[in-house]
Amino acid sequence: MASDAARWNHVWVGTETGILKGVNLQRKQAVNFTAAGQPRREEAVSALCWGAGGETQILVGCADRTVKHFSTEEGIFQGQRHCPGGEGTFRGLAQADGTLITCVDSGILRVWRDNDKEASPDPLLELRVGPGVCRMRQDPAHPHVVATGGKENALKVWDLQGSEEPVFRAKNVRNDWLDLRVPIWDQDIQFLPGSQKLVTCTGYHQVRVYDPASPQRRPVLETNYGEGEDVGGWALIPSPSPGRLLGCLKGLAGSVRGLQCHPSKPLLASCGLDRVLRVHRIQNPRGLEHKVYLKSQLNCVLLSGRDNWEDEPQEPNKVPSEDTETDELWVALEAAAKRKLPDLKQTQRALQTKRRKKKRPGSTSP
Length: 366
Known about the structure:
Layout: H1 2-7, E1 11-15, E2 20-24, E3 29-33, E4 45-51, E5 54-62, E6 66-71, E7 76-82, E8 90-96, E9 99-104, E10 108-113, E11 125-128, E12 133-139, E13 142-150, E14 153-159, E15 168-169, E16 186-191, E17 198-202, E18 206-210, E19 221-224, E20 233-236, E21 247-250, E22 256-261, E23 267-272, E24 276-281, E25 287-293, E26 298-303, H2 321-359
Antiparallel strand pairs: 1-2, 1-26, 2-3, 4-5, 5-6, 6-7, 8-9, 9-10, 10-11, 12-13, 13-14, 14-15, 16-17, 17-18, 18-19, 20-21, 22-23, 23-24, 24-25
């Protein structure tokens, strides 16, 4: 059943053809879910996130500016709403206190009422966070706080329940050794658990840690992982260490579009244009745990946070009655064929005996 298949999936990915794929790593199964029944590139999935109620609902942001609600309990899409405004695709989705938060490339961040039967076409709040947005990320500890950043758009932290000005605005790093301005290109952002710090990664191979509680607005930690280390792999830099390179996971054949770590297990899920979902173990022994080819180009990944991956009970597959009757028919036919097989052998032996007897009268002695 679709609901059983959806409930036990470990990883969800969104594709360039508008398909939501659920992957069960224990059963080695991948199931496609589409709202319209047929995949459409106009509905390419650009963002995924869990709903505010936990892992029972997934918000699916599509290229046509619709946000679809998918139930992992029922295994079906339960509704959608259109979120116009700005240009480009979704760069982030979030849900908080009955509202839906969206942000697009052009820098329009909007808050929509999400619990009405008839959704209002007008947003509750609109913020202009700056053009060239690459990522909007919600703070898990404070759902009404989000961070944004992009190309020539420095990191900003916004309190959606406060003023329309950012509560933290990062400052660019100092000029380089040639006294040239360092360009800004924050491609991803993440809130570090258990603190107010944020970590960003840039399109110029830099990882930076910011502390809004610090008096300085520049990064409190910065490290580079040179261009040679991103060819066919990723550099992993642990946040507790002073910028030390932990390792490099290799083997990718295309651009990586989505990365997510498990909250309690040393696992990292990744997907990209090579159409392959990979799950790596990032602690010793490091290595590839799972590799699944999913046929479509993958844009984003969403990892289940539950802990019972290996201890998951294997539910018996329920066979429909029609399939059972068909199996019984084939078993009966095979049994009948086995019964007829000895008769055929006896007939062949009798024919061979008759032929030998016919040859005896005509035989001559030497």
